[in-house]
Amino acid sequence: MSFIATPEFLHFPQALSLQSGARIRDYTLAYETYGTLNAERSNAVLVCHALNASHHVAGVYAGQEKSEGWWNNMIGPGKPVDTNRFFVIGINNLGSCFGSTGPMHTNPETGQVYGSDFPVVTVEDWVNAQARLLDCLGVQQLAAVLGGSLGGMQALSWTLQYPERVRHAVVVASAPNLNAENIAFNEVARRAIVTDPDFHGGHFYQHGVVPKRGLRIARMIGHITYLSDDVMNEKFGRQLREGLELKYSTQDIEFQIESYLRYQGDKFSEYFDANTYLLITRALDYFDPARAFGGDLSQALARATAQFLLVSFSTDWRFSPQRSREIVKALLDNRRDVSYAEIDAPHGHDAFLLDDVRYMNLIGAYFQRIAKEFA
User: Keyword set for this entry (predicted)?
Assistant: First the structure.
């Protein structure tokens, strides 16, 4: 049974300095909280979201069907991250299109919609913005910061930017940076968007159009990378749509996998902002805490003082177990407290969102351990 979630909004008139050297002021962050902050303010858990997710982490919206939060199986009363014990916070990142200030909003400096003029944001910028919001909530130290994929990068960055504010970091299906293949996938997706005739240099809002063709292709590319080869073959194989015979056409949708990808692309193009997609994939590309240390990840992670749990999945080729093991090694080089689990799951990168019993039990056990610290 899901609980009712209520989105909230905080406005920040003061400027936030970004890594690019730009500044953004008069911005709003959308967020949700679940559970109750205890008297000692010691039970707060920040959940960081990935590319196409948001602050709506758990629960449902009143009167809205199919409105479950994107990690509703993980977070809630009696669930692995138990909101009877923890005060859980989900924050929508700057530049997103789900309530926080982003390219679809008005630039206070010009009175015009930002569009492609919205400043480039990084993982580090998001963490700084999240820290400001936590200040407003009276949370000075987090019991844990938790995230998967791009959310895991934010969790890792929290331990480096604000080491004294994080007791535990749970980094799932993530990496210390993107490899060349991942950057390449992101670039192909971005080119699909920016070369769409309806993109208009990122100012398509003024033309009353949306670059849906580019968004569809970008999402199709993404979905291919989120699924493992085994799952794709098991779900679709070489099945034709509706048992049809081959049409010998280069234009028709004939295979089930084609139909699935078209469906996902169509759905995505109806709700996701094209400029947001460009911004978030670029933030993924830029994340690399070791860069300031000559590529030495061990040196980069020396600042972290939190205890860590890292989780990877055997068939995740987008963020492979090897990448999580790089983080584990760097933390062990610094004699940090780190636990690591590599789960043999068939689902590919999407496994971090699914109900694998071993995975859920692992997260649940780790958070039970955290809860004992303030029981």
Answer: Acyltransferase, Amino-acid biosynthesis, Cytoplasm, Methionine biosynthesis, Transferase
